[in-house]
Amino acid sequence: xxxxxxxxxxxxxxxxxxxxxxxxxxxxxxxxxxxxxxxxxxxxxxxxxxxxxxxxxxxxxxxxxxxxxxxxxxxxxxxxxxxxxxxxxxxxxxxxxxxxxxxxxxxxxx
Length: 110
Hints:
This protein is of the alpha+beta class. The chain contains 3 helices and 6 strands.
């Protein structure tokens, strides 16, 4: 698993209007953080957004995949779902989906 610097920088540039978003290398990918809260992960040049019970139905409705990985012989899932492809081409949509994921991270930290 690896991310290209170009893809990570593209997302950081697109998310600049949202606030001080930072990328940190982790688990073979990157975590996207704002104000100390991780709201997104990038793995293999694929953006995944944090979800909870409130936001998950929208991702399920669009048929978006949940992030999973193998740990030893077990499939593990995280509460991150693939971002819609359309938000990668539309800056406003990228902010909208990412802001919703950030709000999930805020709720989880309370």
